[in-house]
Design brief:
The complex is a heterodimer.
Chain A: E1 19-20, H1 33-42, E2 50-51, E3 61-64, H2 68-81, E4 86-89, H3 98-101, E5 105-106, H4 113-127, H5 129-133, E6 144-148, H6 151-166, E7 172-175, H7 176-182, E8 198-202, E9 206-207, H8 210-223, E10 227-229, E11 234-240, E12 243-249, E13 252-255, E14 258-261, H9 267-273, E15 281-290, E16 300-303, E17 308-312, E18 318-324, H10 336-349, E19 358-368, E20 375-378, E21 384-388, H11 398-411, H12 425-428, H13 435-438
Parallel strand pairs in A: 1-2, 3-4, 3-14, 4-10, 6-16, 14-21
Antiparallel strand pairs in A: 5-9, 6-8, 7-8, 11-12, 12-13, 15-18, 15-19, 16-17, 17-18, 20-21
Chain B: E1 3-6, E2 10-13, E3 18-22, H1 34-42, E4 50-56, E5 64-70, E6 76-78
Antiparallel strand pairs in B: 1-2, 3-4, 4-5, 5-6
Classes of the chains: A alpha/beta, B mainly beta.
């Protein structure tokens, strides 16, 4: 059992708030304006936001994957159910996977009642997250527009709007004139290749600071006693009979009666270690960001036909995302073809952006499931739970997934809100088809 | 740019092709149980490494052909077979 090894500050090399070493668990004084002022005047470094504790040889629950899903599950296990002997393992730094690579859009205007209820709970949790975690996650509910460029999309949007309203979600179809009022820079003329016929308008949708969500959950979980182990790669999962007994890592073995797979990109590889096969294929999704400009774009704009979504961050950068790459891969290399296509589509929507300059592009790995819904809950291996298959919609579901997975682990029962997302639905033919509302390129 | 070796047209840009997924063996539709059929439809190996796939050369010979590709580096190698 190796507990000595890792004493470096994982966060520091990324310029991120690093974890603290050992003792100083007490530094959990609350963040506030007064504290900011006082601390700012003191000119001292801020205390580290979470510890780097030595690794124990056993935990009650081991969570693989230190992104928003894994950290939220750990936080709610401790906060809602009093289970604090929990370890979160990440092979790199926390938030280095999908949680740091998404485009930070939150919304709940999905298509199936199951999906809407689930994502709406997540938006509700996000609304109070900054207060709950005492960490500013900068959730800005600026409205979300999904454009329709043809009759069939308009029909799907009418369908979505009506199902949304039945579930109590604020969502409606608006016409091109109203779109123009919301986004004056949008080209709503009818002479273009893909004229805008209308849009699905979802006022509670918006964007959030994705890193802050990860850090907030990490700080909150750590304060309640959860251990966060960065740079700890899981190399194997021990299964005895049909029960999970622990995990093997590059820093030593851990025994645990409950192991949760909260990874994205590697979810099939981790599940394979426990002998559980997943109906998942991994595709890269590329995104890009421009240099910052003055605020001009208030809402999040999505176009399924043009395979693009755009939002402006609080810093003024435009964040662009698209659909997943056309073939499965674990490669996170960007391509020129992608950026050329993206730029063309963005200019089709907003021609005045032709002078904007791109700062960078990146890609993240998306675990696509056949029905565009996640896979959550227990598996045939007792004690081995999954929270995977998050495709292109994982970030917005972080809080509700954490809450539901924590309840599943603590009570042994799958809560109603995720009961339709079980792994057995694929062999029983009970798919939850969300492609019409979850995918950009459909 | 990424080139794929089409057995009929030679190396061509990947944008000319359509990905048809991992090559698998289709169970006999008349005899397969619903569970076997769903397993064939939904479950793939999804490895991080070499995998045997089907590709369709839509902008060229319009034929399906097998290809081996490394899913991390995206290197490809021809299988020597043309169908």
């Amino acid at each position: 059992m190796n507990v000595a090894g890792n004493s470096q500050d994982n966060g520091r090399r990324n310029g991120r708030p690093p974890s603290h070493n050992g003792k100083a668990r007490s530094s959990r004084s609350r963040y506030s304006a007064l504290r900011l002022l006082r601390h700012g005047l003191s000119q001292q470094d801020w205390p580290l936001a979470w510890r780097q504790p030595p690794m124990r040889s056993s935990y009650d629950v081991v969570i693989i994957g230190g992104g928003v899903h894994g950290l939220a599950a750990a936080y709610y296990l401790a906060a809602n159910h009093g289970i604090t002997n929990v370890a979160v393992l990440d092979k790199s730094y926390i938030g280095s996977g999908g949680s740091g690579r998404n485009t930070a859009i939150l919304r709940s205007n999905y298509l199936t009642p199951e999906g809407i209820r689930f994502y709406d709970r997540s938006v509700k949790l996000y609304e109070h997250l900054a207060a709950d975690l005492n960490f500013n996650v900068m959730f800005s509910q600026r409205g979300h527009l999904t454009l329709a460029h043809n009759d069939s999309s308009l029909r799907t949007m009418r369908w979505r709007a009506e199902v949304n309203k039945l579930q109590g979600v604020d969502s409606d179809v608006i016409d091109a004139g109203e779109v123009k009022k919301l986004v004056p820079y949008m080209d709503t003329s009818t002479t273009v290749r893909y004229p805008i016929l209308g849009a699905l308008y979802h006022p509670p949708g918006g964007i959030v600071r994705h890193d802050a969500v990860v850090w907030g959950y990490a700080r909150g979980a750590d304060a309640l006693g959860v251990h966060i182990h960065q740079d700890t790669e899981v190399t194997g999962i021990d299964v005895s009979g049909d029960r999970v007994t622990g995990v093997r890592t590059n820093r030593g073995d851990i025994s645990a009666p409950v192991v949760v797979n909260c990874t994205a990109g590697w979810s099939t590889l981790i599940s394979d270690m426990a002998g559980v096969s997943m109906p998942v294929q991994t595709f890269p999704l590329q995104a890009a960001v421009t240099e910052p400009v003055r605020p001009f774009l208030d809402t999040v704009v999505v176009s399924g036909t043009l395979h693009v979504y755009v939002s402006q961050t609080d810093r003024g950068e435009l964040v662009f995302g698209a659909s997943v790459d056309p073939f499965a891969s674990y490669s996170t290399r960007g391509s020129l073809e992608f950026i050329e296509g993206l730029a063309g589509h963005v200019l089709e929507l907003m021609p005045p952006l032709s002078k904007m300059r791109l700062l960078r592009q990146w890609s993240g790995l998306c675990d696509m499931t056949p029905d565009y819904s996640p896979i959550m809950g227990p598996t045939p291996v007792e004690g081995f739970h999954v929270d995977v298959g998050w495709g292109t919609y994982g970030f917005k579901a972080g809080p509700v997934s954490g809450e539901a997975m924590a309840e599943t682990i603590a009570t042994g029962r799958t809560p109603e809100i995720i009961s339709s997302f079980g792994l057995d639905r694929f062999t029983q033919g009970r798919l939850v088809g969300e492609k019409g509302a979850a995918a950009v390129g459909h | 740019m990424m080139l794929l070796p089409c057995p009929w047209c030679g190396p061509r840009n990947v944008s000319e092709f359509r990905y048809a997924g991992e090559a698998g063996t289709r169970p006999e539709p008349g005899q397969a149980t619903p569970e076997q059929w769903r397993r064939y439809l939904y479950f793939h190996t999804n490895p991080a490494g070499w995998v045997r796939e089907s590709w369709y050369h839509g902008a060229g010979c319009r034929r399906y052909f097998p290809l081996e590709r490394h899913t991390v580096s995206n290197e490809t190698r021809a299988t020597g077979e043309s169908r």
